[in-house]
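Case study B.
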Amino acid sequence: MAGREVIDRSRRPGPGPAPQIRLPRFERFRLGNGLKVVAVRHGALPEISARVVLKHGSTTDPAERAGTALLTARALTEGTEGRSAGAVAEWLDQLGAVFRVDVDHDSAVLSLDFLSRVRDEALQFLAEVMTRPSFEAKEVERLRDERLDEIARGLDEPRVVAALRWNEANFGGHPYGMRTGGVEETVRRIDESVLRGFHARHYRPASATLVIVGDLPELDRLKSRLETAFAAWSGEPTEPAPVSEPQPASSRRLWAIQWPGPQTEIRIGGLGIARLHAEYATVLVMNAVLGGLFSSRINMNLREDKGWTYGAASRVDARKQRGPLYVATAVDAKASVDAVREILGEMERMKTEPPDEEELGLAINALTLSLPRLFETVSQVAGRVAHQVIYGLPDDYWETYAQQFRAVSRADVQRAAERLLDTGSAAIVVVGPMRDFHAELQSLGEVEIRDIRGRPASL
Amino acid sequence: MVTFDLEEWTLDNGLRVIVQEDHTTPVVSVHIMYHVGSKHERPGRTGFAHLFEHLMFQGSEHVADDGHFKLIQDAGGTLNGSTWFDRTNYFETLPSNELELGLWLESDRLGFFESAITQEKLDNQRDVVKNERRQAYENRPYGLAVETILRMAYTEGHPYRHPTIGYMEDLDAAGLDDVRSFFRTFYAPDNAVLVLVGALDADRGFKLADKYFGDIPRGPGARRVTAPPVPAGVEVREQIDDRVQFPRVYMFHHAPAFAQPGFESADVLSYLLADGKSSRLYRKLVYEDRIAQDVSAQVWPTEDCGLSFIVATARPGVSAPALEAAILEVLSELQAGRLDQREADGSVNRALRELVNALDGVGGRSDAIATSATFLGRPSYVNEIFGRVQQVTAETMTEIAASWFIPERRATLYVLPRPGGEGG
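Model:
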């Protein structure tokens, strides 16, 4: 090509004018039976992503029967009043659609992704499994056994063991300390009558929202299709009891779990914030400085400086109540205790050394300039709208989002760190070849030896 | 069903540039794929292509050591790289007004890499990669199964015989000389393809590609490595133990390579076997016989000769031979032609849905275009896939099952619980 532009490589090329972000444009309506619908026309490909959002997650599980919300969702496609489990599976697979269930502490989301050429039938499928599951005893027993196998298999994975045990160490007996799919003893108590009861109480049109995104027909046609598909669904839901606020611990807990591998899994943290807390943006910015990004302090230290790990990150999971805020990594077993010390040090440093302008800018830019690519695919858009529904965020949430983050200052971040990063009361779980460094670990606090199931043990 | 308009331009130095305009969302994917992967590694240097990929994120002459990640994330973008048997790619998705940032970063590490490389960076990233190997393979249940089965399925010296992560002792052996010679041999504009997908004007994309990459000289001509097809022989069998509670069966078959005749049939056959609860293996092993916790089937998109996996994990009390027998029974039914068109159509539908899903985002689409361009020299293959998948029938899948999924093209590995019980 002739006339090549002269180029100055010494500095980063400046950005062009900021593009107009294309946020989803909602169409909201209600069906005759009370089912709320949020429809978003999006994308250029012939596909649709539908999600039924229920505000009934695992904290709604009946007492002693943790795992009910998950198994109810999984059982939807294991037989309906009109079709056997095998026939439902064949129907779904013939459509080429994919059905997923995602149950967390706060919600249950049932997704169906499909090509728009099978739209009407896919919506019929969704309505049938949501509203008329049969919960036959033998299918429920099989699902329960599958869940028990899954629980057992998690114990083969040190990262799973670390995650489960840290939640218990951090939340104790609070419902957030229980994993979303239940544990062996609670799952064993679940049978078809438990699932029927849960479905009858919570799977009701007035408590559900259908989010549908993608290559949609015009609104009237969509409405009439949905009215037909969901016409038989009725009944009033039972409001779930609110979840209590988790209480912060008063002292450090340090659990050590023997695992004879070449690496040590480490989890360190405490309570974060609730999703609707006024300081949500501040805490996300703080997390991005500490460990939310590749270039955050913890990863730059443990990976790029020390070479101890493939990656180290911090996460904040804001729920209806205060969710977890923690650092997670897997390090060369030889560096286990040093890594725990460095992580605690980085948490403390957030209080004594607030982010400089560059760190703060990076955190805020990463969280706000990323908006265009967070609304790219139909499943991304459906997921973000579902999140708005679960936490009751306003329709214009994303319009004001960037502004909220841009307002966060260095002092705000420091104050949040002071409030949330209390290493003296942190929960610390270490899963690795404990016999090699148990003695050294004791310099960081009183070590409780636990087995992979979390029971008191000895080395 | 779906067609993407592709425009192509080759710079004077041999760099192929492909643009697909898509103004739906104000983002752009910058994707550069080099035709070098683990198959190009010398004996004793396994894992080097991947270790090298890590070094590409450690700065270049005009980009600070920690600049790559920082600048992309500061612009609101996301980025990564990956290494495969046949190629290595680097990619970022950025807001559309930051296209030049991506081109500046990618061109700097192609044109101005060597002056920034140091022993200290090599040692640091070697440690990182060794921890990646520990985390993703050694300290993960069944984590060493795939590299074991590659060693079984290919003879000594075959380019696909070792895993991309490499072996620990070879990672230790890599030095700065290896870094320099690997870079000079393989990292050249005429051994790469640059794909830009998203909200940009194609002419501007070509002009900017020339601005940033045009003055980088051609390479010496990269050594070509072709993994030769493996002739049918006898089945290879092994068993290893691991710190797991449940036996698992890995059944490997040689298969058609990416885009070669039969590839789409083999791919759709993997949906028929194990995608969805009505799929053949799931229905028999998990639902009816209740002997497996899970089962999966996949065909890997390799350039030269293909490979596929069927993997099933036993339920408590079930043995590996019982699982294997059940898988073989399903395969023999298919080989005997017991497969109707309706079931075939369902698996085609699932493959199409997955394909549309994979091409929805600009990142997945640029990857598919770059792979087509690198392996076939024909980026437009990405548009042919839909038609090829739709042409798959019960007969073409039976043919694949009968000609490829046979003992003569098979390696079978059992991974068994280590004697001594849980938690070591």
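Chain B touches chain A through 97 residues (CB under 8 Å). The remaining cases will be described in the next quarterly update.
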